[in-house]
Amino acid sequence: MNEQRIRWDDLQIVWAIADTGTLSGAGRRLGISHATVFRRLTDMEERLGVALFERSRTGYSPSPAGEDLAAVANRVETDIVAAERRLAGKDLKLSGSIRVTTTDTLFTGLLAPIFSDFRSNYPEISLEVVISNQIHSLSKREADIAIRPTRNPPETLIGRRVGDIALAVYGQRVKWQTERRPLSITDLSEQPWVGPDVHMGDTTLEKWMSEGGRAAQCHYRVDTMHGMQVAARGGSGITVLPCYLGDADPQLVRLSEPVPALTTELWMLTHPDLRHVTRIRRFMDEVGERLRRT
Q1: Alpha helices in 166-219 (DSSP H)
Q2: I need a labelling partner for 225 at 20 to 30 A (CA). Which of 11, 192, 219, 271 fits?
Q3: What average pLDDT does range 22-29 have in this prediction?
Q4: Half-sphere exposure in the Cβ direction for 36 (13 Å, CA)
Q5: Helix axes 23-30, 34-48, angle to 10 degrees
Q6: Quick check: 290 and 111 in contact, CB under 8 A?
Q7: Helices 34-48 and 8-20 meet at what angle, rounded to 10?
């Protein structure tokens, strides 16, 4: 094999198939059809004179040669992303794009008006907002900045704690408006609850729900805070919500004091290579200050 026979596009094909195990999965990752993936893989194997994958009914398993090329692709991709970050670090202008990842509740409950003001103040900066409850990799440039509740921010990232997110118990206003509040958690434990589904990934909230008999009263589970909010709004049970979300909902009423065990730190994080980028620094300073005041 010589360097003329292997291109970066070839390495991406091998890496995608090895990582997903199927041609269709590789095609979805690369944004091409599975037929194109098959054709390019076949062409590559013919040029190199070696089988890169073993085919079976369950998918594609890399041969030793395929594993070697997939490892090379991983290293090359890491080098390319690192080079992009270093080049981005030389950007001293208040222009360009910022890709921010955050959760759906934070965006609708806190960030949307703050982002709107930032765009008005810096019209030459484009915001790309990834609203997801899944963690996106800042190391691979899936996002430039993460604004997320976390009790353990990754040590590989830098940033600042911009505040704490308090959570309390909420119920349908028309049902609870005549009750004297706040009520104790013990008084509320025997009520029907709307709780987090395991796929939501909030282990602290799951553990709290399992205490005091609350889990036994929870027969309705949802995998997002917004879903829990809507279910409680409809009278399906009481639920735990961030106070910035529950207090702003006119159809809900806060039933308890904030629960100390559920308080979560709110962090703004970025990759160390981006800390000197002017637009990144300005965004973190101004948006972080707004969040601290909020």
Answers
A1: 173-176, 185-188, 203-209
A2: 271
A3: 89
A4: 14
A5: 100
A6: no
A7: 120
pLDDT for 285 equals 93
H or E, element range at 232: helix 225-233
What is the number of structural domains in the chain? 3
What number is the average pLDDT over the span 204-210?
Answer: 93
Domain residues for the domain of 242 are 167-262
CATH number for the domain including 208? Answer: 3.40.190.10
Map residue 159 onto helix, strand or coil.
Answer: strand
Cβ-proximal residues to 169 (8 Å cutoff; 6+ apart), any chain: 183, 185, 188, 238, 239, 240, 254, 255, 256, 259
Distance from C-alpha of 45 to C-alpha of 223, rounded to nearest angstrom: 44
CB 244 within 8 A of CB 110: yes
Same domain, 273 and 150: yes
Q: Residue 84: what pLDDT?
A: 67
Q: Are 279 and 95 in contact (CB under 8 A)?
A: yes
pLDDT at 240 over 90: yes
Residue 195 has pLDDT above 90, yes or no: yes
Whether 53 and 188 map to the same domain: the answer is no
89: in domain = no
Q: pLDDT tier at 152 (50, 70, 90 boundaries)?
A: confident
Instruction: Indicate if the pLDDT at residue 92 is higher than 90.
Output: no
In whole angstroms, what is the distance from residue 89 CA to residue 192 CA?
52
Which CATH number characterizes residue 74's domain?
A: 1.10.10.10
pTM above 0.85, yes or no: no
Average pLDDT over residues 40-45: 89
